[in-house]
Amino acid sequence: MNAVVQSIGSLFSSGQFSPTSEPDKAPQLYGKPAPDFVLCRDAKGNATAVYGERVWDFNPYRLSAKKLARIRFDTVFNESGLQQQALIEEARHLLYCLIYFAGGGRLGKLSASTFCQYWLLLRLAIQFCYEQKQKPMVGVLSLRQIFTVPVYLAAFIGQSSFDKKVFSGVLKGLARVGEERLGYAVINPAKFDLSRPEHKQHPVIPTRIYLNLINLTGDLLNQLYVGVGRFESFIACFADEHYGITHDRQNSLGVGGKAHRRPDMGQAIKDHGLTSVFAGEFECSGRRNLQLRLLRMQYVVKTLIHLYTGMRDQEVMRMPYYCLSDQVVRQVVVDDQGIERDKPRSVNVLSTTTKFTGYNKEAAWFAPREVVRAVEVAQAICRGLAKLYKIELEARCPLFLNPSIVGYTRNSAEVGVTSFKARGTQGTVLHGLSIQPEDLQELAQSDPSRDFYNEPAFAAGQPWPLTSHQFRRSLAFYGSSSGFLSLPTLRAQFKHMTIEMSRYYANGYDNLRTIFGYYDDKKKDFVLPSNHFAFEYQMAVPMSVSNQLIADLLFNEEPLFGGTGSYMEKQKERVKAGEIQIEDVRADTEQRVKSGAISYRPTLLGGCTKAGRCYSFLLGDYTECLSCEGAIIKPYKLNAAIEDAENELYSYAEGSGEYQIVKGDIERLTAFKARLIDSVEV
Predict the structure, then answer these.
(1) What are the Cα distances from residue 11, in Å, to 62, 359, 490, 668?
(2) Contact, 586 vs 329, CB < 8 A?
(3) Dist. CA 469–CA 204, nearest whole Å
(4) Strand 347-353 vs strand 525-527: parallel, antiparallel, or unpaired?
């Protein structure tokens, strides 16, 4: 099965695309497709990338909140001719082959963003090929010559500036496509130095800087929260192109007399009761500064969400406007007199995660009250910007709408998310915390294998090089070292595939004494206040996992099979018969999740409640779920897996190793279906 169709199959199951949005399937294994062959469709079924057209748009398949640049074949060369067109057609065919026959990624799928990076590299390659026209001894080259002649390939690598990791991916992808489809064998990339640079783990934020960031974001949030009920009407006023500019400027534009004069920025802020909000970090002197100030407000919100949830950058940027969901994890406490002492509490921030799924899959993160208040600020700003964009606040409206709309005419602004570029965030108070010698000492203790003293970015006196992923690493580090966040809890909150990955994030925590609370002078030790959000993590994450398990299994009308699936099916019948109460099942499930006895994650065939590592899952042997005692098999997923495997079988030559493996998987899946599922339905 081709890579893109596989990815779209996942999107079908997520409910984001209708079946009409599936692209065309390859009509043949070899040769070029027809010019009207459709590579990509949007949610409404409209073709956005057709093989023979000059522009391909793969944004309907993107996973990131940021839009992808369209692939434009008509802007590669300044002039058009037969030689240029031949190179473009060659690149077009290689892109088609990479989509349908190369695969790639953790799940054997080629993502839209990676594919666009491949195009940028092939674009450089065909420009290099044409530039050789200036050399009489060489002449215009073809991509075939570049990828088969070592001297030409070495020259291209030496004269071009590109990501070697991406180029290696192109060569490996073309090698997987094969000589039969390409008509030639690609040079082995191992013959060239295309190794990726040494990976350095994101550093832990030193405790002094970490606590300062906690305090600063808290203070800035308090300042912004004053405007929650006022941002919408204030921002909406800027639909008037003269609103907020100086009176002199209004006069020069011919606004008219005092009766027609709009408030300048200072008066506008005062009229909406936002004087205390637009002060200090967010001081705004004129309309042209408003875009940047709104961006910095959104940046504070984004930083605070990272700080308290550990969400990845794009997981935050994909958050929709309607992203808050209340779930009770601690019941109300009422004393003997009936007075409510403690209110129930727990909040989830909803977004999407695609790290190990390859499609936009909904997931939930527990978050304390600080994040709720931060989201409310972002929602207030979003409501105002939505009025400028003239869009409704429906389910898919992004929370972080781009504030550039205040600087554009209404017809030229495209709806999108904020771009937090360095020039917009550098110079803010969050990026102004200097590194002290004691911070370097802590860094060395947190990662003894790394020499921070010889890295210029971490030199004493320099501003701390803050990135969003550092909050994720630091939360894992300090949470684990405090003993309040277990690895299973960390894995659930961070959406890790394995506990080993959570251990990697928390790596080195035992080398450094944590300051995840405050210093008690009497006890001469660091302690956590009783209302610290670390306690809430302990409560909320196991509840989130158990709720997901119960909702997916006990409330699902479809019969379940497999080891745990059969047990859950019996529990469903007992609940329906009134033999047990759902509250009892929920309490027992939550306790088993807390103790680490069970876990829960969706799988290709249904779900898995096995705690700990699963070597079959890591190796991609999904048919082992059929005999696993922790497996939950759902009939509709089993049928989909059989159909996918049967389609994939046609891609392999009969008798090949791949053919035998896939055929064996089909036999095991169909045997399980016939033995258990079909017999039950009969």
Answers:
(1) 11, 6, 27, 26
(2) no
(3) 10
(4) unpaired
Judge whether residue 417 has pLDDT over 90. no
Identify whether the C-beta of residue 470 lies closer than 8 Å to the C-beta of residue 205: yes
- The tokens of 344 are what? 């129930």
Q: Are residues 255 and 273 in the same domain?
A: yes
- Examine the domain organization and report whether 560 and 528 are in the same domain: no
Return the biggest CA–CA distance within the chain: 98
Q: Say whether both 242 and 272 belong to one domain.
A: yes
Q: Does residue 563 share a domain with residue 512? A: no
Q: ∠ CA 97-604-662 to the nearest 5 degrees?
A: 55
Of 582, 595, 397, nearest in space to 489 by CA: 595
Cα separation, 58 vs 99, in Å, equals: 12
Side chain identity at 333, as an amino acid letter?
V
Residue 515 and residue 526 in contact, taking contact as beta carbons nearer than 8 Å: yes
What's the token pair of residue 19?
């079946």
At 497 the pLDDT is: 40
Most confident of 101-105, 108-112, 299-303, 478-482: 299-303
Q: Return d(Cα 352, Cα 241) in angstroms, integer.
A: 36
Among 81-85, 208-212, 345-349, the range scoring the smallest mean pLDDT is 345-349
Q: Which two tokens stand for residue 350?
A: 């909803």
- Res 500 pLDDT > 70: no
Q: Which domain holds residue 507?
A: 437-535
In a domain? residue 210: no
- Domain identity same for 41 and 183: yes
- 635 and 617 both lie in a single domain: yes
Same domain, 443 and 425: no
Q: Domain tally for the chain?
A: 4
Compare 597 and 261 and report the one with higher pLDDT.
261
Instruction: Convert the pLDDT of each residue in 429-444 to its tens digit.
Output: 899 899 998 888 888 8
> Is 19 inside a domain boundary?
yes
* pLDDT tens, position by position, 217-250: 889 999 999 999 999 999 999 998 889 898 888 8
